[in-house]
Amino acid sequence: ELDGLKLPEAIHKLNPSEFPTLSRSRKACRKGYVLLNGSTGRCIHKVQNGDIITLQERCIANYGPNVKVNPQLPFPYEIKILYECDDLALVFKPEGPPTTTPGGTGSYVVNVKTALTSFITPPSPDRACLRVPLHVHRLDAPTSGILCVAKTKPALINLQRAFAQRKVTKIYTAIVLGRPAQSHGFINSPIPMKIKGEKVMRQASSEYKILQEITLIPSNQNTEHNPLVL
């Protein structure tokens, strides 16, 4: 009865508990989770009698993703695991690689999202585990710091809700040239964001505090000294 059906329709009929809707099965095919006769199955592929349909499951860590590596950004680069349990992991993102690949830059950019699968241990099989670990927030490419990663569906939902409700406090340390007018204060200014493809301004508030100040003495002693502030 599956002969001639497209692959999403076939897996929807074969496993309605895992793929209750055609939308879910199409998404699995687009993400490369479904194999048809050992090759990556696509939504346009049709199933024939005797075909073998396989679901890819992430079962071990330290495997290399199927991506083209940018020679200027060798893979795998080091991602330190600061904390890890069956539900989540806290990792240290290095400076340089982007958290995700921006649109239009091509698949050759090995981002942190791709690299996570080579460093994070999968959760126990009895957990509601995600097929791959997913970052809950992002850090800019030049920024290094702690990245929160979900390993199970409940952890992903709860962590995303915590970030959306602003229950998470983010602390950044930066080196700046020059001295702020005040050693401690707040910056209240809207920042641009894209929501459903449209650019909107969202109100943001940042608290800052000077931790350390260093005066740089130039070679020309008659030139005004420049403070370096942390």
Q: Could you describe the 3D structure shown?
A:
The chain has helices spanning 7-14, 22-30, 112-115, 153-164; strands spanning 34-36, 39-40, 53-55, 80-84, 88-93, 129-135, 145-152, 176-177, 184-188, 191-195, 198-202, 205-209, 213-216, 226-229. The chain is of the alpha+beta class. A hairpin with a 2-residue loop joins strand 1 and strand 2 (39-40). The protein starts with 6 loop residues before the first helix and ends with a strand.
Number of strands: 14
Ends: how far apart?
68 Å
- Order of secondary-structure elements: HHEEEEEHEEHEEEEEEE
Oligomer: single chain
Residue fraction in strands:
25-35%
Characterize the largest beta sheet: strand count, sense, and whether it forms a barrel. 4 strands, antiparallel
Summarize the structure.
With 230 residues, the chain is an alpha+beta fold.
Layout of helices and strands, plus pairs?
Blueprint: H1 7-14, H2 22-30, E1 34-36, E2 39-40, E3 53-55, E4 80-84, E5 88-93, H3 112-115, E6 129-135, E7 145-152, H4 153-164, E8 176-177, E9 184-188, E10 191-195, E11 198-202, E12 205-209, E13 213-216, E14 226-229
Antiparallel strand pairs: 1-2, 1-3, 4-5, 5-7, 6-7, 8-14, 9-12, 10-11, 13-14
Helix pairs in contact: 1-2
